[in-house]
Amino acid sequence: MRVLILNGPNLNLLGEREPEIYGSDTLDTLEQQCRERAAALGIEIEFAQSNSEGEMVDLLQRHRDRDGVILNAAAYTHTSLALADTLAAFEPPVVEVHLSNIHAREEIRRQSLTAPHAWGLISGFGFRGYLAALDLLHARLSEGAGE
Ligand code: DQA
């Protein structure tokens, strides 16, 4: 079972970026927590971050043979038709994750162009959202749950 975890722009700054919204833990800590959960579930993960929309499209295209994707496209969630098109042409189940509750923030963040192409969306639970996404993908892939 192989899963891509892809993080979008500015998530490399976790820990120093608006800690009142995103917390004080870093992307390295998030990766570590995801690796531990994935190992316990027997999932092989690739953990990536990019500040570039085109590179995110390339990464998704290159990993379209994966069993699942966890995507936090960050600000591109709200703006990127290119990422939405990529997901529309994408087979593996995608769990869209946001650290913050995008529906409790500014109006523009309440719209996700990518969510209609996702299996589901987790928003507002910090790092736990990624761990829950791993659990959900594992359940779907091993038991056929949620199909
Ligand atoms: C985010 C929410 C987005 O609106 C924002 O642009 C981000 C992070 C989140 O994880 O809460 O960069 O995706």
Instruction: Bin the helical content.
Output: 25-40%
How would a crystallographer describe the biggest sheet?
A: 5 strands, parallel
Main sheet strand line-up: 2-1-3-4-5
Mean pLDDT across residues: 96
Distance between the termini: 17 Å
List the ligand species.
1,3,4-trihydroxy-5-OXO-cyclohexanecarboxylic acid
The secondary-structure element order is EHHEHEHEEH
Global shape = globular
Compute the number of helices.
5
Q: Cα-atom Rg, whole angstroms?
A: 14 Å
Stretches where pLDDT falls below 50 for ≥5 residues? none
Beta-strand portion reads 15-25%
Oligomer: single chain
Strand elements, count: 5
Which structural class fits the helix and strand makeup? alpha/beta
Report on this structure.
This protein has 147 residues and is an alpha/beta fold. Helices cover 36% and strands 18% of the residues. The protein has helices at residues 19-22, 27-41, 53-62, 81-88, 128-143; strands at 2-7, 44-49, 68-72, 94-98, 120-123. The chain has a 5-stranded parallel β-sheet, sandwiched between helices. Strand 3 (68-72), helix 4 and strand 4 form a beta-alpha-beta unit. The longest helix has 16 residues, at 128-143. The protein is globular, with a radius of gyration of 14 Å. The mean pLDDT is 96.
Topology overview:
Elements: E1 2-7, H1 19-22, H2 27-41, E2 44-49, H3 53-62, E3 68-72, H4 81-88, E4 94-98, E5 120-123, H5 128-143
Parallel strand pairs: 1-2, 1-3, 3-4, 4-5
The protein binds 1,3,4-trihydroxy-5-OXO-cyclohexanecarboxylic acid (DQA).
